[in-house]
Specification:
The chain is α/β, with parallel strands linked by helices. It has two domains: about 160 residues, Leucine Aminopeptidase, subunit E, domain 1 (3-Layer(aba) Sandwich); about 325 residues, Aminopeptidase, CATH 3.40.630. The chain is about 35% helix and about 20% strand. The strands form four sheets. Strands 8, 9, 10, 11, 12, 15, 16, 17 and 19 form a nine-stranded mixed beta sheet that branches. The chain is elongated. The protein binds ligand BES, manganese (II) ion and zinc ion. Manganese (II) ion binds next to loops.
């Protein structure tokens, strides 16, 4: 889809469709009023007759409205004006785009971007509109022999701003929104790909492709390299699989070399069977999403590179399968991590932390400003926070605060969880420096505590996205989260968030 920004009055638009909002009950927004005036009360008459009450989620398509220059007018219900917030704004845009896709209109001018949203800027409205429009029209049908084609899909969306002096700001926000949306799309597609296609080597190829497109530095460490380094914790997870593990490092250098990088680490388990501690059969297919941490950091890096943000960003992806097999690790095995600390593997299904710990230790060599890892780490986090909030842990409160704020801004929210020392005892092992599981209680927290033992040398946050990275059920699929949160955090860090 193509996007552009424009400032002008709705009745003068020559477009296949003009989109304007109606508040409940039956209150026209300003652009709707302008159309109504030009049309000699044509719209207010229809609204008065009760065909459009303004309830959120409703739409009414009008054709050839007299006095206006567009083929169609789409009225979108916004709900009550006093309740109109971010969520309502986003919902209205989503409804509008989905409806437009079902009409014959190839192009449309949307005036919803002019609506005031409490505490949110024009840049925010433009960014969100671009992100939502591409999210709402995303399809993953590359494995369907017969695709259900949209007959006349929306090809061009023009976002209207009220004043000409807002154009420059809105253009910049549009560029950002599209970069973020494409990062989200990449993240969703990598997540949705079946695990026989999206294996560690495939992720490595994708990283190389991104590096080639944006002229980034990319290094792929092979099994032998990892052995030489001493990443025995990571390798113990890869041992059960015939797919070779890959350790991916991608670098965007947008700032001076003296500026310390922000490092993102993404869990890249391309399929998690649980290993010898095998998972139950039901819904095991969903463990193809266990690389969504990796997908999200790659999507974020792609967005940052596309926006050419003046920051240094390094992305690390430890990629492997977790399979049972003759050389798979056993419960009771003890391995030495890259940090030198030894780990007793009591459950081979707690594999995410085993690969992340070596990646986090590896991050030290970049002398990072901040390290953030992203992982579908624990079922316990899903129990605690459901599919609404990502679990956020940090060894520095100001970092946690910045990430929470970025999540709020992006409507990709996280919730701050405790990382107190009191929980560390649960990881005690009689035979090694630590066990890889901490028992039934507070599973998301003990997993984070495990990681915290490898992040003492830098400011670090951990995002547990087990509940938020994908949706289950008949409409299952990757969500692209937390690409919006991460990109907003980085935009903020780069001083580019308006
Ligand atoms: N990838 C899973 C976490 C997961 C489970 C994500 C369900 C999404 C939905 C992770 O590797 C795992 O298996 N964690 C175990 C840890 C346990 C053995 C301590 C879990 O959560 O059950
Ligand atoms: Mn597991
Ligand atoms: Zn896993």
């Amino acid at each position: 889809m193509e996007f552009s920004i424009k400032s002008g009055s709705p009745e003068k638009q020559r477009s296949a469709c003009v989109v304007v909002g109606v508040f409940e009950p039956r209150k026209l927004t300003l652009p709707a009023e302008l159309l109504d005036k030009a049309a000699n009360s044509y719209i207010s008459d229809i609204v008065r007759r009760g065909d459009m009450e303004g309830k959120s989620g409703t739409t009414l398509l009008l054709h050839n409205v007299p006095g206006t220059l567009s083929d169609r007018i789409l009225l979108v219900g916004l709900g009550k004006e006093k309740d109109f917030r971010e969520k309502e704004f986003s919902g209205a845009v989503r409804t509008a785009v989905k409806t437009l896709n079902e009409t014959g209109a190839f192009d449309a001018t949307i005036f919803l971007t002019e609506l005031a949203v409490k505490k949110r800027s024009i840049a925010w409205r433009v960014r969100q509109t671009a992100i939502i429009a591409l999210d709402a029209t995303y399809k993953f049908d590359q494995f369907k022999s017969k695709k259900d084609e949209v007959r006349r899909p929306l090809r061009k969306l023009t976002l209207s701003v009220e004043r000409r002096n807002e154009l420059t700001l809105a253009e910049e926000a549009l560029t950002q929104g599209l970069a973020i949306a494409e990062g989200v799309t990449l993240c969703k597609t990598l997540g949705n790909l079946p695990p026989n296609v999206c294996h560690p080597s495939y992720l490595a190829e994708q990283a190389l492709a991104i590096a080639a497109e944006f002229k980034l530095e990319c290094e792929i460490l092979e099994r032998a390299d990892m052995e030489k380094l001493g990443m025995h914790s990571l390798l113990s997870v890869a041992n059960g699989s015939h797919q070779p593990p890959k350790f991916i490092v991608l670098r965007h250098k947008g700032a001076r070399a003296s500026e310390k990088p922000i490092v993102l680490v993404g869990k890249g388990v391309t399929f998690d069977t649980g290993g010898i501690s095998l998972k139950p059969a039901a819904e095991m297919d969903e463990m193809k999403y266990d690389m969504c941490g990796a997908a999200s950091v790659l999507g974020t890096l792609q967005a940052v590179a596309r926006m050419a943000l003046p920051i240094n960003l390094t992305v690390i992806v430890p990629a492997t399968e977790n399979m049972p097999g003759g050389s798979a690790s056993r419960p009771g095995d003890i391995v030495a991590s890259l940090s030198g600390q030894t780990i007793e593997i009591l459950n081979t299904d707690a594999e995410g932390r085993l690969i992340l710990c070596d990646a986090l230790t590896y991050a030290e060599r970049f002398e990072p400003d901040t390290v953030i890892d992203v992982a579908t780490l624990t079922g316990a986090c899903v129990v605690a926070l459901g599919d609404v909030a990502t679990g956020l842990f940090a060894n520095k409160d100001s970092l946690a605060r910045d990430l929470l704020e970025a999540g709020d801004e992006a409507h990709d929210r996280a919730w701050h969880m405790p990382l107190w020392d009191d929980y560390q005892d649960q990881l005690k092992s009689p035979f090694a420096d630590m066990a890889n599981i901490g028992g039934r209680l507070g599973g998301a927290i003990t997993a984070a505590c495990f990681l915290s033992r490898f992040t003492k040398k830098f400011d670090w946050a951990h995002l547990d996205i087990a509940g938020t990275a994908w949706k289950s059920g008949s409409n299952k699929g990757a969500t692209g989260r937390p690409v919006p949160l991460l990109t907003h955090y980085l935009l903020q860090r780069a001083g580019k968030l308006n």
